[in-house]
Amino acid sequence: MKRVVVKVGSALIAPDGKGCNSRHMLPIAQFIREFQQQGIEVVLVSSGAVAAGRIHIAHGSANPSIAAKQAMASVGQSQLMAQWQRFFDGPCSQLLITHGDLKDRARYINIKNTLRLLLENNILPIVNENDTVATQELKVGDNDNLAALVAMVCDADALLILSDVNGVYDADPRSNKDAQLINQIDHIDDSVFAMAGGTRNHLATGGMRTKIEAAQKACEHGIHTYIINGSDSDSFKAFLAAQNPGTHFVANRSLKKAKKHWLKHTLLSQGSIVIDKGAITALLERGASLLASGIKEIYGDFVKGETVNITAHCGTRILAKGIVQYSSNELQRIMGKNSAQIVEILGFCPSVEVIHRDDMVLLVEEVEED
Q: What is the pTM of this model?
């Protein structure tokens, strides 16, 4: 396991509903630090901004309005970040996103690039939905599903959903003392969703159902998903010892094959890039990213975030497909140039790579692997 997304629910951030509380946050931070000490990269998706700011906003209702929740979030977000930063020696960063950010090709790539650079620089990204500006139509709706989307964006190996329950039970453990914890779920179907109850936390937007929805998204993308009890430090010790203290949703296939299948079969190419012999060698033999210096010709009209074919010999041989960091117009200006010249030519440089190796599938290998 090289990269993991850890999602923390509101009940763990503000267990008494009166702002951030270190009772559970401190052990969770230690859990994350131990991952990092093992060389595992971590992205934290943290709920709790609304709960953290609730005591500062007069709302007069057990079920605050959207406007009230947005005001709570605007106050609570800074408190939430300050609390997390207290527990880490290294720097933390904040990413506030909406569903619209993830649907837009260019913004999706920008988020991916930002997460990639933060992790490369040993900075802990802390992600939350941008509750202060998100409209009802743009809201992801809950941070469980947001965490699954973030895990997909950053190519995580595993998604850990920390909750105030142990995992999925075959009956509601709050009303049935004979309910049994299900340690492993190999396939998510209607019977699994039938075991999910709702949430009793009026400040939370999810429940067990949204956690299962998140697991379904992640598993289909090749990401193993776990629901474990974030209020029990023994759960952390067990997980770090390669034991399963909660419910493990088994990924349908490997992350590598899932992403290659997605790139090859789901995304339609909007153009093509012809590369030179040096770039061909770098891609096929060294697994390198594609740089502007190796590009000879551009065909088609495409924008940043779309998929293109990578070809040799004027497009007669398709070597790979990938998600491009620049539009066709921009590539026409920088092709054949050194990466250091991009800023001088375009005035900006979102990425030194035209197509990052993580966003590329080599079709000459894919035939053998499928």
A: 0.83
